[in-house]
Amino acid sequence: MKVNFNKLSKYTQTPVFAYCRRLIKEGIDLNTKLEIYRNNEEPDIIVSNIGKAAKLTVKEEPNLHFAKYTEKKIYNKAR
């Protein structure tokens, strides 16, 4: 699967991982390979398995590193 980088979400610090999670929610096979292009003929980013990438995020503390993704819960305070 090929995608242009400009189509990825600009509302997250990890757009590639977020896009992988979105593809899975849309029913795309977990083993799908994803190629992300900017304006080149060659891919800038290759994700070999969207299922594995969807489980990752980036943490900054205590230093920059990959970490297990956990979905944030949003609570409605109005009752």
Search tags:
single chain; 79 residues; alpha+beta; three-stranded mixed sheet; 2 helices; 5 strands
How would you describe this protein?
This protein is an alpha+beta fold. It has one domain. The protein is 19% helix and 23% strand. The chain has two helices and five strands. It has helices spanning 15-25, 50-53; strands at 2-4, 34-37, 45-47, 56-59, 65-68. The strands form two sheets. A three-stranded mixed β-sheet has the order 1-2-3, with no helix packed on it. Strands 4-5 form a two-stranded antiparallel sheet. Strand 1 (2-4), helix 1 and strand 2 (34-37) form a beta-alpha-beta unit. The longest helix has 11 residues, at 15-25. It is globular. The mean pLDDT is 89.
Low-confidence stretches: none
Strand-residue proportion: 15-25%
Category from helices, strands and their pairing = alpha+beta
* β-strand number: 5
Which sequence of strands runs across the widest sheet? 1-2-3
In whole angstroms, the N-to-C terminal distance is: 43 Å
- Rg from alpha-carbon coordinates: 14 Å
Give the domain tally. Answer: 1
**Oligomeric form of this entry?**
single chain
Give the overall average pLDDT: 89
The biggest beta sheet is recorded as:
3 strands, mixed
Overall outline: globular
| Number of alpha- plus pi-helical segments | 2
Order of helices and strands: EHEEHEE
Please estimate the helix content. Answer: 10-25%
